[in-house]
């Protein structure tokens, strides 16, 4: 399976929504970055500046290639909550001066804590899904799917026009524009989806 992710995909409110079509910033993460079943996180030794980014995650349920936006949702079978961890110092080094790839900063082991998946049928309106993150008991991020710049159906149609999405592939849809922050040893990160606790990640 593969993990497809998007960068810079949220606005603070609808008044900030771009008037023109935005080309999504797409990157991939290896399956070895997944951290499941509330496993503890061991921060990578090569970074001193790892940040958390809570995101909605959508699972592909059937082979998806060259589909329209109108068809895209029929290829999703479940929704989860994920944390797209980023080694900011490594990302900065890869961006400057050559605008290199993001893989090293976002693909390390454990860089994608993720919850169990819930059936898509539990979400009657995918344009209005609330999610949030608490770090050490304090809410640090809060988002709603209606504030995505590139909606999930547009994102899936765009990616499926470039590469085939297979059953089990996961699509991350970006983090709220505010509230991402540094992860420290001893932190406890808890993700919520529609008010339901979805994952707890303790940092070693």
Tell me about this structure.
The chain is mainly beta. The chain contains 4 helices and 15 strands. The strands form 4 sheets. Strands 2-1-12-5-6-9 form a 6-stranded mixed beta sheet, covered by helices on one side. It has a 4-stranded antiparallel beta sheet with strand order 11-10-14-15, with no helix packed on it. A hairpin with a 2-residue loop joins strand 14 (188-193) and strand 15. The chain is globular and about 45 Å long. The mean pLDDT is 96.
Mind sketching the topology for me?
Layout: E1 3-7, E2 25-29, E3 34-35, E4 50-52, E5 54-60, H1 69-72, E6 76-83, E7 86-87, H2 88-95, H3 103-106, E8 112-113, E9 118-119, E10 130-135, E11 138-144, H4 152-160, E12 170-172, E13 181-182, E14 188-193, E15 196-202
Calculate the terminal CA-CA distance, rounded to whole Å: 27 Å
The spatial strand order of the largest sheet comes to: 2-1-12-5-6-9
Largest sheet: 6 strands, mixed
Low-confidence stretches: none
Number of strands: 15
List keywords for this structure.
single chain; 204 residues; mainly beta
State the gist of this model.
With 204 residues, the chain is mainly β. Helix content is 12%, strand content 33%.
């Amino acid at each position: 399976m593969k993990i497809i992710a998007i960068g810079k995909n949220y606005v603070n409110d609808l008044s900030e929504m771009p008037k023109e079509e935005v080309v999504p910033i797409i990157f991939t993460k290896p399956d070895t970055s997944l951290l499941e079943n509330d496993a503890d996180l061991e921060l990578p030794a090569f970074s001193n500046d790892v940040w958390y980014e809570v995101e909605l995650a959508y699972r592909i349920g059937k082979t998806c290639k060259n589909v329209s936006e109108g068809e895209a949702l029929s290829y999703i079978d479940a929704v989860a909550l994920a944390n797209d961890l980023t080694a900011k110092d490594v990302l900065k080094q890869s961006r400057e001066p050559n605008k290199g790839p993001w893989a090293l900063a976002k693909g390390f082991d454990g860089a994608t804590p993720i919850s169990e998946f819930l059936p898509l049928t539990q979400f009657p309106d995918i344009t209005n899904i609330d999610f949030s993150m608490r770090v050490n008991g304090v809410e640090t991020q809060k988002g709603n799917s209606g504030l995505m710049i590139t909606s999930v159906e547009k994102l899936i149609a765009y990616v499926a026009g470039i590469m085939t999405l297979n059953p089990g592939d996961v699509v991350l849809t970006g983090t709220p524009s505010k509230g991402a922050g540094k992860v420290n040893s001893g932190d406890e990160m808890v993700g919520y989806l529609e008010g339901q606790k979805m994952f707890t990640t303790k940092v070693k």
